[in-house]
Write a structure and sequence with these properties.
Rossmann fold, 6-stranded mixed β-sheet, about 200 residues, alpha/beta, 8 strands, two-stranded antiparallel ribbon
Length: about 200
């Protein structure tokens, strides 16, 4: 059975702008408290940095999961999205909370995640969460917790495309500002983020 594209509430609707701004401010505060830190650290890309984002404490907290999901659903309004997905493990908590909230809002948006490696037992699927493994003709948004160069989420993009999906956007919680915008522009894929690293560095 085809999944109908949901229509989500949006900040452009009367009375919704202040609520969205409040949600964004609250999400910023939670990330700043639970997930943002300064200090020498090696990133997944192999580069060194003087600041970092560990989004798991935010994504796995009840309030953090809720406010991020609200903001993401607002960004997806009117896009006719059929599925949300992402790369294990960083995107998995986010996919789950967004999908759950979409159900609560009676606008169900199913999710999937892409394995970095196919397991040698069980169903041996690269994409988990899709019963028949096909995304043929479906409009998909790939979610990510923190984006650096853009190459990590591209693994999920490529897997979804190979399964027949039309990937219309990569949406990240935080863009570190280290090349992702240019990377996805070259790939002709829309890229967006809820926050930029600069917002936290300047706070």
């Amino acid at each position: 059975m085809d999944t109908m594209a949901p229509q989500f509430a949006t900040s452009t609707e009367p009375g919704a702008v202040a609520e969205d701004n409040n949600l964004r401010q609250r999400a910023f505060e939670i990330i700043q408290t639970r997930s943002f830190g300064r200090g020498d650290i090696k990133l997944s890309s192999g580069k060194s940095s003087t600041f970092y984002f560990d989004m798991k404490p935010t994504m796995l907290s009840p309030e953090g999961a809720n406010v991020l999901s609200e903001l993401i659903l607002a960004r997806l309004f009117g896009r006719g999205i059929n599925y949300i997905g992402g790369l294990e493990m960083g995107a998995v908590p986010l996919i789950s909370s967004v999908s759950l909230l979409s159900h609560i809002k009676k606008q169900p948006l199913p999710g999937f995640f892409v394995r970095k490696e196919i397991k040698k037992h069980g169903t041996q699927r690269l994409i988990e969460g899709i019963p028949n493994g096909s995304l043929s003709g479906k409009k998909v948004v790939i979610l990510e917790d923190v984006t650096t160069s853009g190459e990590s989420a591209m693994i999920a993009v490529a897997a979804a495309q190979a399964a027949g999906a039309l990937v219309v956007m990569v949406l990240s919680i935080v863009d570190r500002g280290e090349g992702a915008v240019a990377f996805y522009k070259e790939k002709n894929i829309e890229f967006d983020s809820l926050f930029t690293a600069g917002e936290f560095l300047d706070s």
